[in-house]
């Protein structure tokens, strides 16, 4: 059953980060969550679709992944986690599910699209510590130019933005920079309290 949000308390934040393979969206999402800390759920399309479902990313099979992924995000939000959802999330297959998730979320929502050219996605892919086993021709087949979700909250981040700049934009524009965690561990865990106290002691 969904967790109710106390009266006067803004519900958790939903952040969606999209882009082509090799655009840097996974690195940006992981770093944004790392900087925020506990209280934010990181949902990666590739893990949920490939590992949990082992489903191919195609429209020809009436895929389960769009509903599964957005339902997972909805559950985490209902449990008072801020959510960072990242993936290619092609509009052909995911637009309806993502729009439904956004339209029914009562809290802040921010959508980011990493607008990176095909040539740059290839360059970034080749510099990965662990490149996924795909060829440039396969990446070209997957590549979709400016596959925007077309929501009022969508921000397009150009390829000239560094990882640090991209993460800073995501945290700032989503409001996560100042959003307090809502989940039990950061709020009531003794270990988290000690870590927070230590970090405050070392502030200049």
From TrEMBL:
InterPro entries: P-loop_NTPase. Residues 177-204 are annotated as: Disordered. SUPFAM superfamilies: P-loop containing nucleoside triphosphate hydrolases (SSF52540). Pfam families: AAA_33. Residues 192-204 have a biased composition (Basic and acidic residues). This is AAA domain-containing protein.
């Amino acid at each position: 059953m969904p967790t109710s949000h106390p009266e006067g308390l803004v519900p958790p934040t939903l952040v969606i980060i999209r882009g082509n393979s090799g655009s840097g969206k996974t690195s940006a999402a992981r770093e944004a969550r790392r900087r925020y800390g506990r209280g934010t759920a990181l949902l990666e399309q590739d893990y949920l679709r490939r590992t949990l479902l082992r489903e191919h990313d195609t429209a020809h099979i009436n895929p389960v992944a769009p509903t599964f992924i957005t339902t997972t995000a909805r559950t985490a939000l209902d449990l008072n986690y801020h959510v960072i959802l990242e993936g290619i999330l092609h509009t052909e297959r995911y637009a309806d599910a993502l729009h439904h998730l956004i339209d029914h979320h009562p809290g802040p929502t921010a959508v980011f699209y990493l607008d990176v050219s095909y040539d740059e996605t290839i360059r970034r892919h080749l510099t990965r510590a662990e490149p996924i086993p795909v060829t440039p021709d396969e990446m070209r087949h997957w590549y979709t130019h400016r596959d925007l979700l077309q929501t009022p909250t969508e921000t397009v981040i150009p390829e000239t933005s560094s990882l640090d700049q991209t993460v800073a934009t995501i945290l700032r524009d989503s409001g996560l920079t100042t959003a307090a965690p809502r989940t039990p561990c950061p709020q009531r865990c003794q270990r988290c309290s000690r870590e927070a106290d230590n970090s405050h002691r070392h502030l200049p």
